[in-house]
Amino acid sequence: MVSQTEVIDAVNAAATSFGMDGTELEQLLGYVASMPADEYRDFTSPVAGVQDPKAILELVRSRFKAQGVAYGSQHSVSITAVPAAGAPAPTAQPYVDMAMLKDLLAEQARSLKDALVEEARLQKDALAEQARLQNDALARWLAEHARLQKDALAEQARLQNDALAEQSRLRSDALARSLAEQARSQKDALAEQARLQNDALARSLAEQARSLNDALAEQARLHNDALARSLAEQARSLKDTLAEQKRSLTANVQEGLVDNAPRRHHPNWAAPRRQWAMSKAAVPKEKKVL
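and the corresponding structure tokens:
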């Protein structure tokens, strides 16, 4: 057997789904609130347990309408019939004491007032209970709706974070590939530039070495030419000096021979000859200058 709260929740859910009028919903909820506890067994299915909200709503609506018809017929029998036109007038009522009738009417008025006050209080309590149940149901529905929205937003945020992470990863991969390509291009450019610089430097050094070798060769040639000229000049000067010394010695010898002809057989004649031979041997022979 279901509880009163479950029936009220089912009626609220079905009324919300089908767009029921607020006045009818209040009447149905008031009827459910005033329903005896033993009548809730009719809302239980022996197979599936509690029936679906639509079936519960239809059952509550049919019972409420049936109760309304019975309530109207019950009160209609207590209404005094009005005689039709032309019918004989009713017989005169016996005499009634007006004071007693006044007291009776006052008692009936007090009873009716008390009944109305009690009915108003019961209706107020029923409406308060209905409002509380509706508020509880609304609070549960709002909490469930908020939870579902929170879960949906959390899932959406997770998907967005995953998408952003994937996008960031793709951007990082693209940036890494771009940087690697730039580094490779710069490396190739620097290698080519270094090769060209090395080639230019090698050519420059070779040209400088060639120029230096040419300059050194020219300097050596000029130095050799100058040295050769100096040596030739020294050789000529020495040759002239030796020739002059030879002529001088020859003249001296001849003059000595002429002057000393009577002394050839003199014992001291050999000494001048030895001096002359020694002086001649001291003079170096002429060397051929290349």
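(Above: one complete record from the training split.) Confidence is low (pLDDT under 50) at residues 69-96.
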